[in-house]
Amino acid sequence: MNIMLHLLASFCFKCRAGGTQRLPRIVGRSKAKELIFTGRRFDAAEAVTMGVVNYCVPAGEAYQKALELAREINQKGPLAIKMAKKAINQGAEVDMTSALAIEEECYEQVLQTQDRLEGLAAFAEKRKPVYTGK
What sign results for the dihedral spanned by CA atoms 38, 40, 46, 52? Predict the structure, then answer.
């Protein structure tokens, strides 16, 4: 991991990897400038702290962690996940006013679904919801 991040910092202008555009969106403009200008390496724990990666797991355990996370997401309403993904992805590319409009549009698409009603009913009945994707 250190080598890859060092390469990003050292060669982002040459390799056109998008480091000058992606890193500021993750760690903020000031921290991105520091990392890119200095080419400073950082370890996995610092990468987690800065938000460059979500998790730091021991070698050989990444696949298991990914499965654990996928199972957790899979328990949520698929339509809500789809709309949240759309809102995040599209909203990150526009100004805040437009992003909030995208979020509202996505929310309205979920509002009248059977899955939303199932989620509300399950919460009221203190049980796990059974989502159908409808």
Answer: positive
Is the pLDDT at 60 greater than 70? The verdict is yes
**Whole-number CA gyration radius for the chain:** 19
Domain segments of the chain: what residues?
Answer: 2-60, 75-124
- Please return the burial class of 77, using the count of CB atoms within 10 Å of its CB with bins 0-12, 13-18 and 19+: buried
The pTM of this model reads 0.71
Q: How far apart are the first and last CA of the chain?
A: 41
If you average pLDDT over every residue of the chain, what do you get? 86
Q: Quick one: which of 82, 69, 75 has its CA closest to 113?
A: 82
Pick from 79, 82, 67, 62: nearest CA to 118:
79
Please answer whether residues 109 and 78 qualify as being in contact, where contact means their C-beta atoms are separated by less than 8 angstroms: no
Q: Write out the two tokens for 62.
A: 């990444």
* 75-124: CATH topology: Lyase 2-enoyl-coa Hydratase; Chain  A, domain 2 (1.10.12)
